[in-house]
Design a protein that fits this description.
With 111 residues, the chain is mostly helical. The chain is 50% helix and 0% strand. The chain contains four helices and no strands.
């Protein structure tokens, strides 16, 4: 399944001795998603005998949105999805209402 392949790829990258940083550009709205990424990174670093692991997860917000609001950010994300068109890896804006998908993800986000 795609999730397992994704996590294996993260773990394999973290296991490479020359890798110091891993940047993952992916939506992680659920705590379980973030926990899975942390476990995969930790497993990879442990496999190479690396010491401690520091994980930074960024929650990017639009500066015009109030705390807990996402309307400006949702508009910006929707425009980015639409501009990528068929180049977007998980959403085809021609086939779905990208704005509704973005807003639903924002509503479901766990902090």
């Amino acid at each position: 399944n795609a999730k397992e392949l994704f996590l294996k790829a993260i773990s394999a990258a973290a296991a490479k001795p020359q890798v110091r940083y891993i940047f993952i550009d992916k939506i992680h709205i659920l705590k379980q998603h973030r926990d899975d990424v942390l476990a995969a990174v930790t497993q990879g670093f442990s496999a190479r005998g690396a010491g401690r692991v520091a994980l930074v997860l960024l929650n990017l917000c639009h500066p015009e949105d109030e705390e807990g609001d996402y309307h400006e950010a949702a508009e910006w994300c929707t425009q980015r999805i639409q501009s990528r068109g068929l180049g977007h890896l998980s959403l085809l804006p021609q086939a779905v209402d990208a704005h509704s998908v973005v807003c639903a993800a924002a509503e479901d986000a766990e902090v």
